[in-house]
Amino acid sequence: MPTIFTKIAKGEIPSYKVAENDDFYAFLDINPLTQGHTLVIPKNVENDYIFNLDDDTYLGLCAFAKKVAKALKAAVPCKRIGVAVLGMEVPHVHIHLVPLQTEQDLDFRKKKLELTPEEFSRTAAAILEEYEKL
Question: For residue 110, how many other CB atoms are within 10 A of its CB?
Answer without folding.
Answer: 11
